[in-house]
User: What shape does this take?
Amino acid sequence: MPPRLSPRSCTPSRSIFHSLRSHRRTLIPAPSPNDGPLLTRRSDRALPELPSSRKVWLRTLPVFLCIITVSTLAIFNYQKASSSIVNATLYALRTSEAGKRELGENVYFRDKFPWIWGEMNQLHGRIDISFGVKGTKGRGVMRFKSVRKTRMGFFETQEWSLEMEDGRKLQLLNEVRDDPFKNTALQAQS
Assistant: This one.
């Protein structure tokens, strides 16, 4: 039978703790730029100094804000360019006699990425937009302005014009035909 140990014999002596303390590893500094290659890496070494995060923020914040601003403007412009109002005005310009005469066939946006200038606020009844158009014969800027005077009323077109590159301004509403944007079927029911 193995000898029985007393509770005092299970506790380590002070000399063991003392020897562990004397063999404790000290922290070593991180290597400096001129120290040469680091062949071994101890896990208890001192961490390198981090660059100030304030400097990084001050350098990257303006770039971030510019990217966010440009992205937001591009998103809102895309929303305007793909709206039914812009599509309807382009279609009406394509079928307009004055538009065909001045611009020719294949009337579409002038630029590859069209920029729609102005306000398009259907909720409050204000539409005032302009954008570049081109055809096989010429180029110009089309302007469309329409307002809704009452909350449940219809939009009334106030201006629909085409300004050519040479400075001539054509009023497209003064043609022989009626306003192409007037909803006569709904007005006849009222």
